[in-house]
Amino acid sequence: MVTERMTTRAIDPEAGGDGRGDDRDGFGTVFGNGRGGDASDRQSGRAAGRGNGAPATLSDVAREAGVSIATASRVLNGGTRKVRDDLRGKVMQAAERLNYHANAYAQAVAKGGSSNIALLVSDISDPYFAGVSQGVVKAASQRGVTVSIAVASNGEDELDRVRGLVATRPRGIIISESENVNDSARQELQEELERYRSSGGRVVFILDRGLPFPAVDVANEAGGRAIGRLLVESGYRRPVILKGNDGYRSSAQRYRGVVGALAEAGIMVDPRAVANGQFNRTKGFSAIMQMAGAGGMLTPGEGAVYGGAGADSIVALNDVMAIGAMTALRNAGIVPGRDIGVTGFGDIPYAVDVHPALTTVHLPLTDMGRAAVESVLSDDEYVADDSGRRLIFLQGRPDVILRDSLPRR
Amino acid sequence: MVTERMTTRAIDPEAGGDGRGDDRDGFGTVFGNGRGGDASDRQSGRAAGRGNGAPATLSDVAREAGVSIATASRVLNGGTRKVRDDLRGKVMQAAERLNYHANAYAQAVAKGGSSNIALLVSDISDPYFAGVSQGVVKAASQRGVTVSIAVASNGEDELDRVRGLVATRPRGIIISESENVNDSARQELQEELERYRSSGGRVVFILDRGLPFPAVDVANEAGGRAIGRLLVESGYRRPVILKGNDGYRSSAQRYRGVVGALAEAGIMVDPRAVANGQFNRTKGFSAIMQMAGAGGMLTPGEGAVYGGAGADSIVALNDVMAIGAMTALRNAGIVPGRDIGVTGFGDIPYAVDVHPALTTVHLPLTDMGRAAVESVLSDDEYVADDSGRRLIFLQGRPDVILRDSLPRR
DNA sequence: CTGTTAGCGCCTTCAG
DNA sequence: CTGAAGGCGCTAACAG
Description:
The structure is a homodimer.
Chain A: E1 9-11, H1 58-65, H2 69-76, H3 85-98, H4 104-111, E2 116-121, H5 127-142, E3 146-151, H6 155-167, E4 172-176, H7 183-198, E5 202-206, E6 215-217, H8 220-233, E7 239-242, H9 249-264, E8 274-275, H10 281-293, E9 313-316, H11 319-331, E10 341-343, E11 360-362, H12 365-377, E12 391-393, E13 399-402
Parallel strand pairs in A: 2-3, 2-4, 4-5, 5-6, 6-12, 7-8, 7-9, 9-10
Antiparallel strand pairs in A: 11-13
Chain A binds a DNA duplex through α2 and α4.
């Protein structure tokens, strides 16, 4: 175990306290305070619905307007308008006065279908998923559908969450998880989703996982190949590769691309120089800390990779890994970019803000989210059989963004 | 307008294309591919619910089990179990066989209340909001409630989104927006929320906005003061301050703290050295680009702040602004940490990964989200009047995290 | 303990 | 064009 933030001190501004402590510090410490209230506090005594409790219902509005509940429904929610103008006016006024809002649940029950989609991610606070989620939510709200979000940090959770989401009967469910689970969980997941689909739901993955459902995908292998080529063109020969879980398809594809391009240039990757892990910052950090620490595998000398020559570059198959790796390098006294080149994959927003700025391949995160909601909301029949039309490709050829973390050498 | 990524080139790995182009490139280019399907594609023909279409309903299960629909309901969903074991068994088997999942909407309608909360943020892809959201979603799912999320990038959107969310009749709504809107929108928002509350909903803000609703808040002013003090203790005298929108309470509080501490040490902030903006990376970047560019306000000389002496530090009242500012400094040939000290506010995960690592005050993002969920789900009566118990404070005294971006000088 | 009977709030034929 | 009536899937008294 390598501890992090080695160089970080925490102080308490008021006292000489013991510092930052556990993240959970102070949580739950709920206490009142005596600030005088704002002038605006109680000044708006405007009629609030039915004054007392429950929100106004359709029949309230109907009664108030002196029409039937059916007409009220037609003007308020019905699509095609076929109501006399005076009635229509009355209804709208009544609705306004009562502050009527349709009850979405009742509508869903009556119509037998909601206007909600579900999104499952493994970690919202990861910039990759945050970007995708942003795309999903914005695209959905443009189309007037709401999105429920759930996070599943591990493979077991995933199945639970999916079950929970299915219960809310969304129009569709979008799964953007990074890691693959063990085979039995995978099998159960597939069955659950198939049942969901056979009951009219639509499912789409973001990044293909090899399951028989549509998936929004990107050119992973081509991207990897581009990175590999860039590496050799820029004069690097001895890369360390940081990949994700082996069961994770996208990681495998990127890896294949990198290794392939390298091989074409006659470069064989030292098996000791490839680290398996997960697509998260911590793993990138710890992998490099370990290599740098234990025997100095990175820098030339006894026990170093590539027969003692050491590494000249780090190829992370994911941006946050690359970023974690960079700070690990620094902790080990190695200057990223100067001593060792670094590349990422994804082009998350903060890739420009690390130093040196990260060379990486661009992934249209927001668009990926958008494409997923389009797929889920479309009425196209999906082809259940296996040929064609299962993958939705964004970007045919990847763009690699050259920054300073991989200078020519 | 200052353009960004000035040093960034984009290449196309295959052709000598014109680079990265617009972000929207390639979007919508949906095309099939001919990959052979996986073996797993059609092998699982397991009974899927009622085989054909609609999912099984409660009465389906009841019939299948040979019991009344009420008993079925009791065993499947009812809390307290009071059903004979043999019947209970039959029901569960039937449910299993039919793959029954309760229809959450119908339940919500019947019970007159859902088990869903709504979350409104201004930008999920901002690490601050991502952290908060993560806390909200996890806490909610632990309690078995789902969360619907919406994003409102600006003040007008906010009102729309709130209306949309109210329509879904959530148990509560959590608002974590960073900017204040104009007065009329603010007034409408307040009224909308008051109606929602009077119909039984609970609302809570994350970071107080001065509206008459509960808010999860942190020690903004104390945090600001801590930063101010740290500044003078570390030998800085001429800070540039990057604040948020003036209407934004938390920003104002932090600002007051910083300026107050500075004043105590006899330091007056040059008015030209404070930039108003918004709490986002871009604003931090452009503010510094502008200062560094136009006449070189930052470095000693004609037209520089502090009577020509220039700035020795940048105090951003938000981490992402600080991060944007750091890369802007670099673009201007100024080395952050060495030439000019930098501080942030928030301690987002990637604050450790910029270089030099960011000195900042820690905010318990995840816990803030969790506290909001607890508030919204609790049954405490809220005090509508203005004295006491409106603010929920996490952390009484802020922790400032010392890293390398503000070395002693 | 179990089944019967009303609704929940809304939509949607179906007559007028 | 409008109103009455039945139904969506489920829960909640209420009798047995």
